[in-house]
Specification:
With 344 residues, this protein is of the alpha+beta class. It has helices at 23-30, 48-58, 70-78, 97-101, 108-117, 141-151, 157-168, 230-239, 305-315, 320-342; strands at residues 5-11, 36-42, 63-68, 86-91, 119-128, 131-133, 136-140, 174-180, 183-189, 191-195, 217-222, 248-253, 255-260, 264-268, 271-275, 278-292. 32% of the residues lie in helices and 31% in strands.
Length: 344
Amino acid sequence: MTNKTTITFILNPISGTGKKGHIPALIEEIIDKEQFEYEIRQTAYKGNAAEIAKECVYSGRDVVVAIGGDGTVNEVARSLVHTNTALGIIPCGSGNGLARHLCLPLDIRKALQIINECKIEAFDYGIINDLPFFCTCGMGFDAFISLKFAEAGKRGPITYVENVLKEGLKYKPETYEVEDETGAKKYKAFLIACANASQYGNNAYIAPHATMKDGLLDVVILEPFTAFDAPQISIDLFNKTLENNSKIKTFKTKRIHIHRKEPGAIHYDGDPMMTGKDIDIMIRPLSIRIVTNPDVIEDERQPNFLLNVFSDFFNNINNVREDINKQSRRIQVINKVLLRKLTR
């Protein structure tokens, strides 16, 4: 009989943008064996992470750690809701939205040290048409792009930007009837996002003031915009100032019903699927336990953006100047291309 905390690491070998063959050796090196008894299991197909996580719940494992991107995290997390088994995250994806929101290190060694600390807190999660999500869900252009991104065969922000530039020129806003506790309203919108956490990933903040502990969804409606609005919207998305943009409508709610004229795509944590005309979204307060960063004190009304910035800085200290210069040039180029193409 052991009194050690039991951990299962679920490793998705094909998620994200990097190789993961070295991770088992890092786990062996870093995990505190005096405190933990652990095992490592690899996924073999889509949905396998959810199956393994369910097995862990049934066998009474204390923590299940998702090693992969947002899709792997979602698979594992949805099997752990309303249980005593906690979610851990070693972020290895192309976006890492939930890890970034929680200020978890993107460096694998440092992320494993967070697991060693094993500070566990309860957080909210959301449901869209019976599908759990932990960061964001939505419909409209972001769901459409999620479909294109899934079909692209490669990952990362460049692929995302390429799809946005290519498909954004052809996408037509839809009319939605949106009903919450205050009544029903109609919106013509480019997209509607419902956020539990603050960002999509890659520090693209769709709902900068979202928190995972308030029992509320942050609803973000992007109304139709002109070619000259597009660069400012993209800047606001990454500067955490989107709520100040005149094309954005935001509100908070516990649940929402959305009706559209035709069936179409939705996404949950970036994973796309086709669904019908009616969409129901709700929040489940404090119903998933997550291993968190003990050095972060989360304001329940606003995530600590400064810590996210410093986390990225120290994880990439040798390349930070070059990355900043590249990102600055990239944003300038993207804005010029976007303006040129949209004004043709």
